[in-house]
Amino acid sequence: MKWIAGFMIVVIVILMVIIEWQKMSRQMKREKTAFIVLVISGVILAYLLLLFPDVPGPTQLIDAVYRPITNILKSWITER
Amino acid sequence: MIEKGRISASQLGKILYMAIIPTSLLTTPAITFKYAKQDLWLSPIWAISGFITVFIVLRIYRMYPSENIIQIMERIGRRIPGKIISGIYLLFILYVNGVIVREYSEFVVSSFLHTTPIVVISGLMVLVCAMAVRGGLEIVGRFAELFLPIFITLFLFNIIPIIADLQWSNLFPIFGEGIRPSIEGAFVLQTWFSEMIIASFFLPFVADHHNAKKTLSRSLLAIMVTLSVSNLATLLLLGELTGNYSYPFLILARYINISNFINHLESLYMIIWVLGAFVKICVFYYVTVLVAAQWMKLSNYQPIVYPLGLLLLLFSQWVAPNTQVLTEAIAGPVTLAMITMFVIIPALLLCIVWIVNRLHN
Amino acid sequence: MNYRRKISFILLALMSCSLLLTGCWDQVEVNDLAVVTMTGLDLTDENQLELSVNIARTSSQQPQENSDSSSGQLTGKSVILSTTGNTLAEAVSKLQQQLSRQLFWGHNEIIIFGEKLAKEGIAEHLEFLLRHPETRERANMFISIGSAKEVLSLAPQIEHYVADDLLEMAKLQTGLNITLKELMQMMISKSQAAVIPCLIIETKQDHQQSYPFIHGSAILKKGKLAGLVDSSTTRGIMWARNELDRGTVTISPENSEGYISFQLLSSSTEVIPYIHGDLWRITLRIHTLDDIIENTTDLDLSVSKHIEELEMELEDDIKRRINKALTVAQEQMNADIFQFADAFYRKYPNIWKQNKDRWSDIFTKLDVVVEADAKISRPGGTGKSILKPNQE
Question: Where are the transmembrane segments (chain A) (predicted)?
Answer without folding.
Answer: 6-22, 34-52
